[in-house]
Amino acid sequence: MKRLFVSWLILLNLLAAGCLSSDANIYSGEDISGNKGFSQFELIDSQNNSFNSSTIQGQVVIVNFFLTNCNNACPLITNDLKIIEQSFFPAHKENLTILSITVDPWRDGPEDLVDYMNYFNVSWTHLTTAEFIDGDFSKMEQIWADFGITVVLTESENSTSIEGRGHTVYYDVEHTNGIVIIGKDGLQKVRWTEDNWDLTGVKSDLALILQE
Q1: What value, to the nearest 5°, has the Cα angle with vertex 182 and ends 176 and 185?
Q2: Does some domain include residue 116?
Q3: Which pLDDT does position 102 carry in this prediction?
Q4: What's the mean per-residue pLDDT of the chain?
Q5: What are the two backbone dihedrals, phi and then psi, of residue 198, each rounded to the nearest 5 degrees?
Q6: What is the C-alpha separation between 127 and 45, in angstroms, rounded?
Q7: What is the count of structural domains for the chain?
Q8: In CATH, what number is assigned to the domain containing residue 131?
Q9: Residue 132 DSSP one-character state
Q10: In this predicted structure, what is the pLDDT of residue 69?
Q11: Residue 12 lies in a domain
Q12: CA 78 to chain CA mean position, Å
């Protein structure tokens, strides 16, 4: 009886300390809790072909949010994703996908995606939206909302941008950058941004999610 009491006491102490908590962080990046999925979407790729998210069901997916007119975090993350592709795809090409989705559809048409992909020598799918009617980017806005991405346009005389497809002034794009990794169950697992970016940590999380 005394031994049983001691065992229960140890268990209670562990629970109080959070050691057995179901809310404990699993990943090295920012855990995404709450069984958060995303709405099915359809965009166009760099070849102006339709892409439907139903084609990635059952796969682990790295979703990257970027813009082609980016000179800071986007190139770094793109280069690191290239390293990840080289490291993981030989063994996991059947169940691992990378998607890069623009946060600047006002500028980034298919031809801009091609130029960006050629510059960085990458071949995974890059996505934007088709030519819009009356500035309707609701499809993109739904995707950004589903993945917790904030996009803000700021007018700037000093912007290096050219006139966009749906915006008549020079502008900069402030946005949440980085990646979200989706598990085979279609749920968002972990987020990595410029603020916490670490290639080793991203690789560790990806390896763990591939095993789930």
Answers
A1: 150
A2: yes
A3: 92
A4: 83
A5: -155, 115
A6: 5
A7: 1
A8: 3.40.30.10
A9: P
A10: 84
A11: no
A12: 11
Q: Where are the alpha helices (DSSP H) in 50-198?
A: 73-92, 110-120, 138-146
Q: For residues 2-17, give the mean pLDDT.
A: 46
| The amino acid at 76 | L
Domain assignment present for residue 109? The answer is yes
Instruction: Identify the three-state secondary structure at position 57.
Output: coil
Give the DSSP letter of residue 55.
G
Q: Which domain covers residue 74, as residue numbers?
A: 28-211
Number of Cβ within 10 Å of residue 9's Cβ equals 10
pTM: 0.81
- Picking from 29, 73, 27, the residue whose alpha carbon sits closest to that of residue 194 is 73
pLDDT, residue 17, reads: 46
Question: Is residue 70 a part of any domain in this protein?
Answer: yes
- Residue 56 to residues 14, 95, 155, 198: CA-CA distances in angstroms? 40, 9, 36, 25
pLDDT confidence tier of residue 195, bands split at 50, 70 and 90 = confident
Q: Return the higher-pLDDT residue of 201 and 33.
A: 201
Token reading at 120: 């960085």
> Do residues 31 and 25 touch, judged by C-beta distance below 8 A?
yes
